Amino acid sequence: MTISAAVLGRPIAHSKSPLLHRAAFHALGLHGSEYTSFDLGADELETFLAAHPSQVGFSVTMPLKERLVELALTHGWGLDDTATLTGVANTLVRRHGVTSVANTDVQGIVRALTPGLTTCRGGAVTAAISAAVVVLGATAGVSTAEHDGADRATILGAGATAASALMACHELGITTVEFLVRNPDRARRVLELSARLGMSATTAPLKLIEPSAVVISTLPAEAVPELEWSPGFRGGVALDVAYAAESGFLNAAKSHGLICVEGTVMLVEQAVAQSEMFIAAAETTEVATAEAADAPANPTWDADRRAVITAAMYRALEHQPGPSDDRPSDDLPADDRPAGD
């Protein structure tokens, strides 16, 4: 089985997607497979996709994420829930003549946050907020979970990446979210999405971070101001989706006792999800072709494949770290840049 895929966007020269996906193909023994990059704008995407029918799939970055959803709706392509709800997509796959579109940034954020969040929640259960505190809290009519921010998230920014972060928080059981923004008028999309997901959401200035189980910055590193952190933090997980060489946001989070997750983790995890989709699509086409020819198929699926892909991508990134201004998912949407909030 061979796979032909690529990453699309503008600018694209800095993208780590070729490095990551080639490493995955190599680790799985798919040596005839290829993963390239193409520089193109939103107005070129439809024509480009029509002119490249042989590719199994594409990774899509700025400024194409919203345009890809528009094309999916126009052409009747499959849209998964993440792309439908957020209005952005970063992945296209072709499976035996059927085109599907998805937003694996949501999976990337979920996978990036899960280990730290599990540790925090486990520690809270072990510490147990002793029976006496629980009783006192109940007597006083105070929810200790709300006080500690256990079901709460704070998201810096309100653009496309914030929408993906919001969906990820929903999947992780968060029920309340506060968006810290410069311009509340630009938060309409994420507030509407919060309502659709049944989550309570508010906006506030980019000044103070209240106790939260999850704190996510979706802003470029240079756009994050020096923020105040509430003294009420009792743990939590912080993710900076930008992966600059030094994250002042994560340094501050660490000083307040939060478990810190670098943007490279999200970068790899969303790419792993994409790689799985590319391989599954290629396998489906291979099986269908083999059945049509009455020949035995040779799918490569096994339970350890994700672990192999993940390990290969992390090794590749360690050997070739990105420049300080690199961005996860190959870049941040334009509305997540400093002027966008």
Keyphrases for this structure?
single chain; about 45% helix; about 350 residues; six-stranded mixed sheet; alpha/beta
Radius of gyration: 21 Å
* Element order: H for helix, E for strand: EHEHEHEHEEHHHEHEHEEEEEHEHH
The shape is: globular
Low-confidence stretches: 126-147, 288-301, 322-341
Strand order of the largest sheet: 2-1-3-5-6-4
Mean pLDDT metric: 84
Helix content: 40-55%
Note the gap between the termini: 45 Å
Tally of helical segments: 12
The major β-sheet equals: 6 strands, mixed
Could you tell me the number of beta strands? 14
SS content category:
alpha/beta
Strand content: 15-25%
Describe the structure.
By secondary structure, the chain is of the alpha/beta class. It has helices at about 15-25, 45-50, 65-75, 80-85, 105-125, 130-140, 145, 160-170, 190-195, 250-255, 265-290, 305-320, and strands spanning about 5-10, 35-40, 55-60, 80, 90-95, 100, 150-155, 175-180, 200-205, 210, 215, 230, 235-240, 260. The protein contains 12 helices and 14 strands. A 6-stranded mixed sheet has the order 2-1-3-5-6-4, with helices on both faces. Strands 9-8-7-11-13-14 form a 6-stranded parallel sheet, sandwiched between helices. α8 (about 160-170) links the parallel β7 (about 150-155) and β8 (about 175-180). The radius of gyration is 21 Å and the shape is globular.
